[in-house]
Amino acid sequence: MSNEEFDEVDVPIRENDDGAEIRDTDIVFDCPHCGKNLVIDYRGAGLEINCSECGESVLVPIPDGMELNDLDLDPGEILKQLFATRRNYQKAELKIQSLKARLVQLQEALGVVQEVVAEGLSQS
Ligand SMILES: [Zn+2]
Prior knowledge:
The chain has a three-stranded antiparallel sheet with strand order 1-3-2, with no helix packed on it. It has a two-stranded antiparallel ribbon with strand order 4-5. By secondary structure, the chain is of the alpha+beta class. 7% of the residues are buried. The chain has one helix spanning 75-123; strands at 13-15, 27-30, 37-40, 48-50, 57-59. The chain is built from one helix and five strands, in the order E-E-E-E-E-H. It binds zinc ion (ZN).
């Protein structure tokens, strides 16, 4: 378990009727859109996932009274998950920055096009 790779936050969603074992720490809930019975690892608590049946986005419920003590996680593993989350956040921030830079480029290009069009109109 401690060998799991958390570079990508990837919590597999499972279907309750595929014969897979359900662990005590799994979260079992029904899709609010299609009613499909879904099973997801506790690490998916509070995440937004796509229903495996209807594809709608579903917010995984956080079980009442869920305590970290109930989970077979050691502090190192929790830290690894925290860092993975932060890494993904940073990646998203970088992506936003590059998109913003691209948007500025496009706006500048659009401004040039508008100037050319305006010049063309005034000359004709
Ligand atoms: Zn569904």
